[in-house]
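User: Please predict the structure of the protein below. I'd like the answer in structure-token form so I can feed it into my own downstream comparison script.

Assistant: Understood. Taking the following sequence of 275 residues as input:
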Amino acid sequence: MNKVKKMYVLDHGVQYNDKSTMLAGYNAATFKEPHKLSTYIKIPIQTFLFECEEGYVLFDTACDPDYAVNWPSDMLERSPYEYPVNGLLPDRLKELGLTPEDINTVVMSHLHNDHAGCLSMFQKALVYVNDKEITTTLRNYVLKEPLDVHIPSDIRAIIKADLQWRTVTEEEFEVPVADGLTILNLGSGHSWGMLALRVDLENSGSFLLVSDALYSSENYGPPVHLPGIVYDTVGYVRTARTIEKYCKEHNCRILFGHDMEQFSTLRKAPLEYYD
């Protein structure tokens, strides 16, 4: 089997959230303790870049550089975002000598604000997305129905960009993207349609990037612990079990979507990578 040459972990800063959004019922009040305080935590915002024989592949696109203007005010108050110098996605690519035009393929785990914020920049790339995720996002946007954590400005930007789409349908579970890269279609759970990405490397072994299908090891369990933000609870548990089974069968290490403890241990671009 041909393998990915390099996997870069790109650090885009943090969002702040009440931990109960990541772990439903965390520190919940009780009859005897009705006034428990909430716990506010930092979660990492990350993307992954792969150097392959076929070119460069990107998994997710982080937050909108103009988030302070474009995000709804309640989101800015509830989940503020901050990033280090050169932390925005275009700057991280520049550190590696690249621009959005150099990316051949983008795989979108889903289209929430902290994953699809820079998607409109990749007009030369083929963009993979779950079919239900993109169709439901566009339908709700046009009909002015609830968008969950999908941001109207992100949707307007990707429509205007006239991107090249490749939707992953319900009938597809494994979809090859490049040598050593395989999409797993996880279906509904955290959002309307979630994609994971299996990565096979010569020296570092295999990883499964699950994004927000599992925020962290605390959600993974056992037992599976639902987050506070979830579209399909039954689908979420089904997905966790699918991931567990798949990783055992294929000897994959899981990389969670927003696990700060795990993220702190990962090698970060531009100086470090996995091969």
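That's the full token string. The mean pLDDT is 96.
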